Amino acid sequence: MKKENDDVLIRLKGVTKDYDIGEIKIRALRGVDLDIKKGEFAAIMGPSGCGKSTLMHILGFLARPTDGEYNFEGRDSSKFTDDELAEMRNLNIGFIFQAFNLLPRTTVLDNVLLPTYYTPDIDHAAAKKKALHLLDQVGLSHRLANHPNQLSGGEQQRVAIARALINDPSLIMADEPTGNLDSRATIEIMDILTALHHQGNTIVMVTHEPELAEYTDRVIMMNDGVVVK
């Protein structure tokens, strides 16, 4: 019999996060409770300084909570070693950043393959085949040998999406993924994310744009370090 928790990918209970700036302690998160289900497309919204980025960093294992519980696929993340966190970031999380974060002197194909270079026991031939398939999926099969500076912003973000998918992550984290794009490229990227969602991928997107949030299943509103809606 299927349990309710079987559908929960992420569960946060009472999560806080403090930063020390000199002698001042800043509490960025103030007891966040949040569930995200497998296959969900969720947007995190709120004013500047509300804790969106901090929550994103914790969800993506880029930072540890100061207090509270973060369970990922039923596993208590507080038990993970630093090496296990690095492995989680590489294998379980696919990151899509506003600034693309592509290696400038590396080809499109090698940028997509980059996460596989840190994956133990990887079948490199199979990884290359998958990278080619992903680049075809995002409409860039004709750009394999190009470098990032030869691509438009929208094309660079499509490369970043292919890279995020190369290791079949459990969760795709998109941090203002269209922030550096024009309106046409924004629609293209959101259409790709929507298609990925319809294929069953779990996506959490930080955005300040209400029109982008309309693509998602659920909007998580934050203010002053807590989820308010």
Can you offer a commentary on this structure?
With 229 residues, the protein is of the alpha/beta class. It has a domain at 40-50 and 80-227: P-loop containing nucleotide triphosphate hydrolases (Rossmann fold), CATH 3.40.50.300. 31% of the residues lie in helices and 28% in strands. The protein has helices spanning 52-59, 82-91, 108-113, 124-137, 153-165, 183-198, 210-213; strands at residues 8-21, 24-37, 41-45, 67-72, 75-76, 93-97, 171-175, 203-206, 218-223, 226-227. Strands 6-7-8-3-9-10 form a six-stranded mixed β-sheet. Strands 2-1-4-5 form a four-stranded antiparallel β-sheet, with helices on one face. Helix 4 crosses helix 5 and helix 5 (153-165) runs parallel beside helix 6. The longest helix is centred in the last third of the chain and has 16 residues, at 183-198. The mean pLDDT is 92.
Describe the secondary-structure layout.
Elements: E1 8-21, E2 24-37, E3 41-45, H1 52-59, E4 67-72, E5 75-76, H2 82-91, E6 93-97, H3 108-113, H4 124-137, H5 153-165, E7 171-175, H6 183-198, E8 203-206, H7 210-213, E9 218-223, E10 226-227
Helix pairs in contact: 4-5, 5-6
